[in-house]
């Protein structure tokens, strides 16, 4: 073996060993100088990447024709979904719904990762099979939402910040033991509210701190600063804000020594505000979104997994398809919640007889988005349901009223507090 190869291997192995020793010594122990020093050696970082990549499923998540099923709705948001089909927000109903989704036969053909809410990570099917094992059987990597929801940001323009850094390292270690291999943190930025410099900085710093802590605990972080659809601004304004937000996110990711090769991004697509007078075509959305990403995201990042943000199922799939009409520096795919689940919920209606049909609806959406990831989706056979938009203004239950609502939810629920989203 060539000399450089040995030196690479030795440096990487020693670095890894020291880091493991430090972990065994316990989180409270001071990190030995050698460990701190080794983190900065390029070969150690590469070794870590290989481990993250192979052992933690990074490669398999960002693989052709695959994307993420996001079912990590906090209890409050899940309650809204269940209410839309007349069901109460009880643990039994949430379990029944997640069981339907996670036991869909053949799901792994199109889905490589599933983001779970904490309750689901520790839950089992009614027959006693752990949900994480259902996922593993389909070769789907289990992930976990680790943020603790949004609360008002004092001193801002009626904006919010995302909680969850306190105790995150120990929680992450527990989630890892339970089978999670990647993490997600969603914060939001509102264009009509500014966004203020304070809100953007807070969002970026929180995401970067979370990403560093996740990587340190063996979870691959998904970085999600959602730029809300609210507003009547043109697409150019969204581009401007998205560029500003992502510049700041990458600045703080670098400051926190986050390994870019070991993260995935979950951006909003660059679209006009939901109340803007003109709609943009998928080609225009693809052009603006890819322009923004190419200006801001280094090619070291392996994958871009979009959120759907209130777009209809069909729109979200068409836009993804448009983005995959030519080669990109990263895997460009989906991590949709509403745009994968809307038809499923409508088909299920909470009735056991409809489970099979609802699972077929999920497979159909997953397949459509898998084709869009490959750039070969056609919308010809889409149903009317798939064409229905799901955007709900944040001021009707989110951003502004949400300030009060969020506090109420924290007290009642103590978990996954508020949310500012279109649902
Ligand atoms: O319940 P929360 O914390 O508000 O999260 C809302 C949802 O936003 C997402 O990040 C994106 O969802 P959409 O694709 O529906 O926009 C989901 O992963 C998550 O379930």
From TrEMBL:
Q: Which InterPro entries match?
A: Aldolase_I_AS, Aldolase_TIM, FBA_I
Signal sequence coordinates: none
One Gene Ontology cellular component term attached to this UniProt record is:
chloroplast
Key words of the record: Chloroplast, Glycolysis, Lyase, Plastid, Schiff base
| Enzyme Commission number, as recorded | 4.1.2.13
Pathway entry = Carbohydrate degradation; glycolysis; D-glyceraldehyde 3-phosphate and glycerone phosphate from D-glucose: step 4/4
Localisation: Plastid, Chloroplast
Q: What class of enzyme is it?
A: lyase
Q: What is the protein name stated in its UniProt record? A: Fructose-bisphosphate aldolase
Q: What is the species of this protein?
A: Camellia sinensis var. sinensis
